[in-house]
Amino acid sequence: MAKKPVKYWLVDAFTESPFKGNPAAVCLLDEERDEKWLQAVACEFNISETCYLTRIAESESPANSTNASSNPRFHLRWFTPVFEVKLCGHATLAAAHTLFSSGLVASNIVEFVTLSGVLTAKKIPDISIACASDLENVLEGAPIVEIKRTTIGDDLLVEVTSGKSVIELKPQFDAIVKCPGRGIIVTAVAPSDSGFDFYSRFFCPKAGINEDPVCGSAHCALASYWSKKLGKLDFNAYQASSRGGVLNIHVDEQSQRVLLRGKAIKVMEGCITV
Length: 274
Fold this sequence. Notes:
- The structure is a single chain.
- By secondary structure, the protein is an alpha+beta fold.
- It has two domains: 6-130 and 263-272, Diaminopimelate Epimerase, Chain A, domain 1 (Roll); 133-259, Diaminopimelate Epimerase, Chain A, domain 1.
- The protein contains six helices and 17 strands.
- The chain has helices at residues 35-45, 89-101, 133-138, 163-168, 173-177, 216-230; strands at residues 6-13, 22-29, 49-56, 73-79, 84-85, 109-114, 117-124, 127-129, 144-149, 156-160, 184-189, 198-204, 209-212, 234-239, 245-252, 257-262, 264-272.
- Strand 2, helix 1 and strand 3 (49-56) form a beta-alpha-beta unit.
- The relative contact order is 0.18.
């Protein structure tokens, strides 16, 4: 029996301009697909993340469950062209934007059941919500201030001396592959006249993504880092990739959560027929 066509959308996240920000493919599944198919589709799209949404019926949540919610819920999975990941911020924003803008949910809140737990996205006006010397050689001589190992994504977070250094550095991807952890986040305080608190770039060739255009999960780690360093909880951040992207971030100390806010724009939609 032929499989039903799978509707998909291509969404640029953390931007309000097409062909900027970070692209993600959002696929809406009506029936189960095996992981080989999910990975093959992600490889076919060949962008940093392809995500899959499957609606959770109300009947799947026990009425007496302490975790019961009246908000619409979806299973959400994320795949790079190479493998499945446990968390992806920009594809979560893209998924939420798709659900809200396409009328697939009537609520202004949607919950995603993921490998990293339940993530909540909320629609608000005009915006959708949804993370040393050898390294200097790897980063082409960018002067390093501090190096940290993140617990989110198991990345190396490297602070350099200026936003200009972040923009101008030329990473050596062959060397980055040999570094420990998933990838390298490079960051610095933004120029005082930029309107931003910090700049960053994220390199992850091990996941098949030499440079991630705008990475939500990396900004969860960046928010925690800069919150301690700058003594503040709210940030306007810029990921200085060639596409560029803007994130508004709040660190909730009480719940130990990072809230990411950003805009998104749909640039394509269609059906997968195999």
